[in-house]
Amino acid sequence: MSNLLSVENLTMKFGGLTAIDDLSFDAKNNQITSIIGPNGAGKTTVFNCLTGFYKPTNGQMFLHKEDNKISLRKYTDFKIAYVAKVARTFQNIRLFPAMSVLENLLVAQHNELMVASGYSLFGLLNLKTYRDKEQLAVDKAKYWLDIIGLTHRADDNAGDLPYGDQRKLEIVRAMCIEPRLLCLDEPAAGLNPKESAELNKLLKFIKTEKQTGILLIEHDMSVVMGISDHVVVLNYGKKIFEGTAEQTKNSKEVIEAYLGVDE
Amino acid sequence: MEKKDIIQSFKDSLFTGLIALALFGPIVGLRTVSKGEGLFITPQWGVVFLLVGLCILGRFLININSARRTEFKIFSTLSSKFSSITEDKAKHFAITGILFAVVFPFLPFTDRYFMDVAIMILTYIMLGWGLNIVVGLAGLLDLGYVAFYAVGAYSYALIATTFGWSFWICLPLAGVFAAFFGILLGFPVLRLRGDYLAIVTLGFGEIIRIILINWYEVTNGPDGITGIPRPSFFGLPFKRSPDEGETSFHLFFNLEYSTMHRIIFLYYLILVLALITNYFTLKIRKLPVGRAWEALREDEIACKSLGVNPTNTKLTAFAIGAMFGGFAGSFFATRQAFISPESFTFIESAIIVAIVVLGGMGSQTGVVLASIFLIGITEMFRDLEQFRMIAFGGAMVLIMVFKPKGILANRKPTILMHGDKK
Residue A139: which domain range? Predict the structure, then answer.
């Protein structure tokens, strides 16, 4: 299995606070790599560095593409999603609540549609080339909605969906940009056990069918242990353990980090 | 409705009466009259008690209405009925409205005054539709929209008086200039949102006005620009006695000369310009860039995470919104034949923003209704002179009380997967 992402000596400092300290790890293609750790361990900061929201103080992040590797440091802001094809979801859901479910998925295909609409010119003239492309985009949206079982609600406002469905919608919206790496920030937060199980199924589907690497931050151990191929444990910005889910469960360091040291 | 509620709302309305008394007492109650050599105070307590009584009664009715929201709701049923009519039959409503607007100049009761008011309302509708792109769709609160109106008007006036080009060449040029200024404003405010953005755009509006006042060599300062050419009907001017070698409109069509010809032509001109604005907005809303505007309004961070370029998206919104402001400005200049910085004060921006917000952010029909309501009511009370602003304020209060989200707040998706269910 080839490497998809390598993080090398990543360091992020906010003034005097070191949120991430010399972190290195790899994530592989078609695998789910989980980042776990107690609150404030720096997990979300890692995501914000990877997805261009923060510029890391030090270190490199590479995305491998066949034999090339591209440095994610070069891209900031929207270009991470547009050029490097790294997609993410957020800890607190960030849908476009007043727009319909379908529109949410179409905004995710903005750049292709923008080109197809001739930067709005063809679209204003209502040319067939644009209408065809738009239909393709709708079909893609429908494909994903069928998978998460929300096709019947396509025309409803995203903000009106139940919480669990909003979570799933945010994930498939990220999938609509056809990412190579999908970063999920606590996707199971606030889900009931049934919804968590559905989420597991969805993530496994993305991993196997879509050839997308998944990076996952999660507190819900049933999700982490159920689907992770690889687990990275952070504490105070440092990597304290790395291994399979089974190894992590039995690691002394990890238990200490979560529960404290026996006196 | 419990007794407790009634007592509660009665107490509340008495308190309102107290505030009203404190306000109206000195302002209305003590009237200064100049008699002979000095100023004398004539108290008029009767008026004060009438006003205070009205405030108490009004507040009491509002309280009762909101307490009984579930059982007894005159106002909310009225207003929801009103919005359901216009929502369900939006298309019929629009077609009827346009048809009415087209035949309006030829209706028996239409006189010069009605035409002038109609032209004014249509100008505000066009400005409202233009600003709706920036405020309603892209969610960028722009309090300096009048700046683009001014840029359009001055570009038109300067080009037309300097080069003598026709209206149809100057109009697009004025639009281009205004769009350029839209981008100019857009760049420094890219990172700003909400209140901060509002303050900067407000400043921008004032900067443009102050430049217009002080750049005497070009803009003729506070004296304004006079003698702006009137538009012609495809080369036929509206003149009683045309210059040598020219045919004027009434001669060409063998009509009796009337000043109404030009007014009617101006009316149709602004109607067409406004409808173009509307058509363009409705179209572009369904295109990727329109959806990106709305997505940006909803959540900018999520937009970035999906690869939407926020810079370009915002700048196009500013530029296109400004362009329509510029078109409206050229129309204003050619209609008045005289412009000065006086016409482009902050109150204009405020009125346009009020029209967009009260109409219901992003709703095209809402803008029309709000324009008719606000401008129409203000005009109806023109005889009251300075007190007509009370009518303007009253109209705003009425909308805020009964339709806090704007007259038409419902948003329709730009694309449907299952088709229209209704």
Answer: 95-177
Q: Do A76 and A185 lie in a common domain? A: yes
Of A78, A120, A151, the CB nearest to B304: A78
- Whether residue A201 sits in one domain with residue A254: yes
User: Mind listing the pLDDT tens digit for each residue in B272-287?
Assistant: 999 999 999 988 998 9
Q: How far is A136 from chain B (nearest CA, A)?
A: 12
Interface of B with A in 294-323 (CB under 8 A): 294-295, 298-299, 301-310
Q: Is the pLDDT of residue B260 over 90?
A: no
Tell me which chain A residue has its CA closest to the CA of residue B414: A103
Residues A228 and A173 in one domain: no
The pLDDT of residue B118 is: 92
- A96 and B294 within 8 Å at the Cβ level: the answer is yes
CB within 8 A of A105, min separation 6: which ones? Answer: A140, A141, A144, A145, A172, A173, A176
Q: Is the pLDDT of residue A117 over 60?
A: yes
The answer to the question of residue A15 being in a domain is: yes
Q: Are residues A72 and A186 in the same domain?
A: yes
Note which residues in 395-414 of chain B have CB less than 8 A from chain A. 411, 413-414
> What are the residue boundaries of the structural domains of chain B, listed by start?
3-72, 87-402
Look up the pTM and report it: 0.83
- Topology of the domain covering B87-402: ABC transporter involved in vitamin B12 uptake, BtuC (1.10.3470)
**From start to end of B315-381, where are the E strands?**
none
In eight-state DSSP terms, residue B342 is G
CB-side neighbour CA atoms (13 Å) of A201: 10
Question: Across residues A120-129, what is the average pLDDT?
Answer: 76
> Would you call B287 an interface residue with chain A, using a CB distance cutoff of 8 Å?
yes
| Domain membership flag for residue A90 | no
ipTM: 0.89
One domain, residues A29 and A153: no
Please list every residue in chain B whose beta carbon sits closer than 8 Å to the beta carbon of residue A88: 305
Q: Looking at the structure, tell me whether residues A99 and A223 fall in a common domain.
A: no
- Label the pairing between strands A3-14 and A58-65: antiparallel
Of A101-105, B81-85, B237-241, the poorest mean pLDDT is in B81-85
Report the alpha-carbon distance of residue B52 to residue B277 in Å, rounded: 45
> What are the pLDDT digits (tens) for B180-208?
999 998 888 888 877 898 899 999 999 99
A116 and A65 both lie in a single domain = no
Same-domain check for residues A172 and A185: no
Give me the number of domains chain A comprises. Answer: 2
With beta carbons less than 8 A apart as the criterion, state whether A134 and A113 touch.
yes
Cα–Cα distance measured from residue A249 to residue A229, given in angstroms and rounded to the nearest whole number: 13
Helices of type H across B39-166: 45-67, 74-88, 90-103, 112-131, 146-163
Position B420 scores a pLDDT of 61
Residue B47 has pLDDT above 50, yes or no: yes
